[in-house]
Amino acid sequence: MVLNTPEFFESIKQPEDLEDVGRSVQNFINKNSTKRIVFVTSGGTTVPLEQNTVRFLDNFSEGSRGATSAEEFLVHGTSVIFLYRKNSLRPFRRIGRSAIDGLEIKNNKVVCNSALESQLKTDLETASRVNDEGTLLEVPFTTVDDYMFYLQKIAILLSTVSVTPFIYLAAAVSDFYIPQSRVSEHKIQSRDIGNLVIELDPVPKLVFDLVNQWTPKAVVITFKLETDASILTKKAHDALAKYGHQMVVGNLLQTRKYEVILWYSHRNVLGIEDEMEFYNENVVKGASIGASKQSDVIDEFKISKTDRIKNIESLLVSTILKEYETQSQRFLRSQFKNRGAAGI
Q1: Confidence (pTM)
Q2: Domain 1-91+124-217 indexed as CATH 2.30.30.50
Q3: CA distance linking residue 119 with residue 112, whole number of Å
Q4: What GO molecular functions are on record for this protein (predicted)?
Q5: Residue 183: Cβ within 10 Å count
Q6: CB contact at 8 A, 320 and 221
Q7: 20 to 30 Å CA-CA from 113: which of 32, 70, 163, 218?
Q8: Does the structure show a pLDDT above 70 at 269?
Q9: Confidence grade of residue 299 (pLDDT, cut at 50, 70, 90)
């Protein structure tokens, strides 16, 4: 049985630092009150089998999409709250794991090749600027319990901002969990129980609460990963209809690194301010972005990476920002036109 939202939160463990995180987020919001804030979630969540955790179930995710997307949002001039799995990839720290491929020995010294040196220089310069400007706040989580409490807290705090926030839900959240009342206090002793049978409860989908209660003025972007291309479009359309948010990013497991599809719902356009301080879109050469009208209320954008583009996220983020600007301006023009026709 799927619990309702209040029952679900009563069944999981609240992180001890929740109020401290809330204060940090509020301070960040206050300091970035004139900028657009993007709330990015990233990485997988764990489901502990014991309160003093030795064993746990895990959703595999390095957090590559979330960390890379956060970088791109920062490059485009937004501020970012980055809710990430502890020890997963983080903005401007992703290159470390693959850096060995860009190192070589010359004259008995370890040196970077030109490609790695250029990438490190760019990342360090951008990270330094972001640090100086105070436009990135990172909040780590581990368990699905932590994630849900932080998500709710941060989303509710963002409901007070004057510039429409974006919520970019790239985390790989567990579909099942164990309520605290059924979690063993100490390490499960294998010799005492023989076969281990674990009963998992479904995690409720909280996107509806996020969209309609916690942060109703936000632009919300969710993700849909499938292995069957024939059901991807229907799944995306169903999500937009069910939750009432603005965008779904769909990808196939086999091609997720270099191809995604963005669905944008016109029906669900919310939070367009009277002010229009949007982002200037840089012309990206070497990209392949095709737009087609999927229906009278949903646009579909197929985004493909080419050799000239460093990652698919740079195209995805720029397309999201550009499309939001386009739809916002279209909305405002229609409002002015309607007022003129009415003689207002």
Answers
A1: 0.85
A2: no
A3: 10
A4: ligase activity
A5: 18
A6: yes
A7: 70
A8: no
A9: confident
Q: Can you tell me the distance from the alpha carbon of 124 to that of 138, in angstroms, rounded to the nearest whole number?
A: 17
**Phi-psi category of 7—alpha, beta or left, where left has phi over 0 and alpha has psi -120 to 50?**
alpha
Q: Which amino acid is at 74?
A: L
- Which of the four pLDDT bands, split at 50, 70 and 90, describes residue 268? low
Residue for token digits 């360090």?
124
Token reading at 22: 């809330």
Question: Please, which pLDDT band fits residue 277 given cuts at 50, 70 and 90?
Answer: very low
The answer to whether residues 70 and 80 touch, using CB atoms and an 8 Å cutoff, is: yes
Domain range list for the chain: 1-91+124-217, 222-344
Answer yes or no: are the C-beta atoms of 26 and 157 closer than 8 Å: yes
Per residue in 48-68, pLDDT tens? 887 777 777 888 788 999 999
Residues forming a β-bridge with 57: 47
